[in-house]
């Protein structure tokens, strides 16, 4: 199976930043509760930006950094739960915004917080038969639009943002596994046309699911690829809650530094969380050829997935 090379990355966060203390002025909550239960110190919130504008900016940054001809992009995927429009897709509007050639396979993917990894696997496959060299995979979320700001147990957890990754096929390893367990009650948001279109979550239920889902993702992929945590450079988990990641980390003593975390700055940005991590690592020069990375995510569905890739 052909693998992928990360050519470049980009991210975009809204201007406006909401600290935990900002929340405590309008809601019965406090910095101590939020930090100790989630690891979050603050999150960005759209004001003038939208899911589409953030996705466009993140994509442009990735293309500019790579210095490639944007018309060499044959696949353009956006993972999102909060598109500006149900249709047209965010991806086809990015094609227009960036002035890209019309010959591009552009569409959105709905897979909640696993969306970016699902899109990455899809883009990898589509690239194999594309006449063009590159795929652009974006995760963008304006979750603030669907949050209930009277529900303190959910609204403090999520943030807005976007991350983009430009890839090309390589002859390195790529392996993905995914699971699905239809469940509405744990985490859902009704579709367009209904009243009260807000995110609804049973936090405790999702927490328990998340820990086992991440552990299963990591373990099954390592078993399949006959590797151990020792062989990996990074194990990147969906940034939903620091406590969830620390729970998983405990299984792998001595490898704590491989579990990169940035949730304190952004909160849970759903489909944008993993590409934002990748962009931060890339910016710091920490993604190098030959590295072995495992990414794992879980989300509404309930669904979960793990991706093993050699850079
Ligand atoms: O990508 C989407 C996936 N979603 C997740 O990963 C979420 C997973 N779940 C979680 O992260 C945690 O379950 C939460 C952070 C949502 C909640 O933490 P918890 O430790 O499970 O708290 P809890 O729901 O058991 O609530 C404990 C207490 C309750 O008060 P009582 O009933 O004990 O008096 C809540 O009302 O904390 C209260 N509480 C708050 N207090 C202050 C809930 N939210 C807040 C808040 N500030 N924001």
Secondary structure topology:
Elements (H helix, E strand, L loop, with lengths): L2 E10 L4 E3 H5 L6 H8 L3 E3 L6 H16 L6 E7 L10 H8 L7 E5 L5 H14 L5 E8 L10 H4 L5 E10 L3 E10 L3 E2 L11 E2 L1 H22 L9 E4 L4 H8 L13 H4 L6 H11 L8 E8 L1 E10 L1
Parallel strand pairs: 4-5, 4-6, 11-12
Antiparallel strand pairs: 1-7, 2-3, 6-7, 8-13, 9-10, 12-13
Helix pairs in contact: 3-4, 7-8
What can you tell me about this protein's structure?
The protein is an alpha/beta fold and 311 residues long. It is 32% helix and 26% strand. It has helices at residues 20-24, 31-38, 51-66, 90-97, 115-128, 152-155, 203-224, 242-249, 263-266, 273-283; strands at 3-12, 17-19, 42-44, 73-79, 105-109, 134-141, 161-170, 174-183, 187-188, 200-201, 234-237, 292-299, 301-310. The radius of gyration is 18 Å and the shape is globular. It starts with a strand and ends with a strand. Oxa(dethia)-CoA binds next to helix 2, helix 6 and helix 7.
Please give a handful of descriptors for the protein shown.
alpha/beta; 5-stranded mixed β-sheet; 13 strands; 311 residues; binds oxa(dethia)-CoA
Order of helices and strands: EEHHEHEHEHEHEEEEHEHHHEE
N-to-C terminal Cα separation, in Å?
Answer: 14 Å
Q: Count the helices. How many? A: 10
Gross geometry: globular
Uncertain runs are none
Strand order of the largest sheet: 1-7-6-4-5
Main sheet properties: 5 strands, mixed
| Structural class by sheet pairing and helices | alpha/beta
The level of helicity is: 25-40%
Q: Which ions, cofactors or small ligands are bound in this entry?
A: oxa(dethia)-CoA
Q: Kindly state the mean pLDDT as a whole number? A: 97
* Percentage of residues in strands: 25-35%
The number of distinct β-strands equals 13
């Amino acid at each position: 199976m052909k693998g992928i090379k990360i050519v470049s990355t980009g991210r975009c966060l809204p201007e406006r930043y909401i600290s935990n203390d900002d929340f405590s002025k309008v809601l019965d909550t406090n910095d101590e509760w939020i930090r100790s239960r989630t690891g979050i110190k603050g999150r960005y919130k759209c004001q003038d930006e939208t899911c589409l504008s953030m996705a466009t900016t993140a994509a442009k940054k990735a293309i500019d950094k790579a210095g490639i001809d944007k018309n060499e992009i044959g696949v353009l995927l956006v993972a999102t739960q909060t598109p500006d429009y149900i249709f047209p897709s965010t991806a086809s509007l990015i094609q227009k915004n960036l002035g890209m050639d019309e010959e591009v396979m552009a569409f959105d993917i709905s897979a909640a917080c696993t969306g970016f990894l699902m899109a990455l696997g899809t883009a990898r496959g589509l690239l194999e038969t594309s006449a063009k060299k590159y795929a652009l995979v974006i995760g963008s979320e304006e979750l603030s639009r669907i949050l209930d700001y009277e529900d303190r147990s959910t609204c403090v957890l999520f943030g807005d943002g976007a991350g983009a990754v430009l890839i090309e096929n390589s002859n390195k390893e790529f392996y993905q596994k995914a699971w699905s367990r239809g469940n509405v009650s744990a985490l859902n948001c009704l579709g367009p046309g209904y009243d009260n279109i807000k995110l609804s979550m049973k936090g405790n239920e999702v927490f328990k699911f998340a820990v086992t889902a991440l552990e299963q993702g990591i373990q099954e992929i390592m078993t399949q690829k006959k590797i151990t945590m020792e062989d990996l450079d990074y194990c990147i988990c969906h940034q939903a809650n620091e406590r969830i990641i620390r729970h998983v980390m405990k299984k792998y003593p001595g490898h704590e530094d491989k579990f990169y975390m940035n949730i304190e700055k952004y909160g849970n940005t759903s489909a944008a969380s993993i590409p934002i991590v990748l962009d931060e690592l890339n910016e710091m020069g920490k993604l190098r050829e030959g590295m072995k990375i495992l990414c794992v995510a879980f989300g509404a569905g309930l669904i979960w997935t793990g991706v093993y890739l050699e850079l």
